Amino acid sequence: MTLAIIALVAGIGLHIYSENTQSKNQKLSSQYQTALTKHKINNIYYEPDKTIAWLARRQNTNGYFVINPDLINEPSQLNANSLRATRYALSTLAELNGLNTINKSTARDFILSHYQETHDENGNKVAGFATESGDTLGIRPTMDAVLSLKSLSALDSESIDLTAIKNFIISHQNKDGGFWDLHYPEYGRNSCLKCTSFAMRALGTIYEHTNKQFSEEFINKVISYISSAWDPETQSYSAQSGKKANDSYNIFRAFISLWYLKNGTNTDKAHFVSNHLNLTALSNTIKQKFQTTTNVYSRKINSNHPSMKATHLLVWMFIKLDMHNQLDKNSIIQYVQFNQSSPGEYGGDIYNTYSATSIFNKLNVAIEPLPKPKEPEYNKLWFPDFLPYLFYLLSSLLLLFYSFNNKKQLENKTSLLETKIHKDKLTGIFNREYLENAYQYHTAYNEQLSLILLDVDHFKRVNDNYGHLTGDYVLQKLAKLVSENIRKTDVLARWGGEEFAILCPSTTSGPAKILAEKLRALIYNYTFDTISNISCSFGISSSQSDDTFESLFKRADKALYQSKKNGRNQVNYLA
Q: Whole-prediction pTM value?
């Protein structure tokens, strides 16, 4: 009996020591995982060298840049878009100090091959550039060529006449102060804000290079035209005077036209633009009508579809006008990083890569990663981990006829320890009880949490039209699809019926919105057997200092209800 008690006490002592050691190690592991998560969130950087290499591989031996380097020698790669793609590539390389990696001489010769001289109807010499050699001259290709030559420091080339180019552009100015371009036949010879911005960027570049100023008469005419493009109903700029505004690009076009009207320092330019743009009204319009739920920007009004180009242009405007406070920098940077399709490439083409790297530079994103957190040194047991169980076995054998009840309690305790994790029987993912326990665990370490709720839209139709077995199959496939596209630290649970919940540790609202939008698009584009496609509505909330699980859930549930109310298949966030 004494030996049995000694064996039991020894086993318990070793077991407690082992449990304490494992508990300390689990705490160290949890802290390390939290540090890794924070490192991932804060490790914001990009790699200019990879973008430079990505672009350099796309230069044809004749100087121009192609979209697909695998077809670099195919004649079809030289087309009406080549001059524009080359301008974007050269602008990006110049901004990243990477022009030394390409053949600048052949790039310059390619651009100059599009140059043509002629005479206007009054016999005056004019000159410009065409999209392809021998084609009609245009304002847009002339702007692309002028900006490209500026990137190459080749505006003083003897092969071109800057005065004749200036005369060609000004010949396209209408009496209302705006410009037209044959390359945009939908506007005819009527002024449009797009053509005006192209003309002003080219003219402004030439005037800055030659150290000249625009006349007061010219400045007033352009200002008058831009003012006429203001849509008082939408509180934004439209493509043409008297038209309804619906495109964020036109906000940038109004800004950049004014920016190039004024020669001088950036401070001088910003002051000039601020005097002629209603920045307060524009800021409200951009926030209310062009900012998406993920705090980046869309092209079309109230579309909630992020656009790399629209985001780039509005970031450009806000930074130049010293309005950094209008930008959610973390959300914008995370959006750009999310669109990296290969090292140094963003969005799949030269223009989006140009936009992405320009955003990184304007927001002063680092070009080197942060050091990773050091993995902790875990405590090691000085005895084999099975030793306590040997003592338990010895004690159990000795007390077999004396302590059956104690033995039964020990077995029950062991069984309880082995069945801590509860899972949903249908989908195999965690259930709501586990999710609530996970919330309590993470809040004990004061972690920032976000909760994402998603609900299948019109799920009753699936059951009614295809049967409950098909409905069960859809829920199983949906659970698998979502679980494969979230982090290992995230907790996915079935809340009930067709509703699911995702608890995201160490996650603020911005990354949670990006994840929800990613899952929404993934589900919407996934093809389920038998029923083809479904959609889901999402609601998001992020933890606050005085939150309980119930209050966090209620806000996410209200946001989900708002998504349903607004038409489903969308993401909403409630602070």
A: 0.63
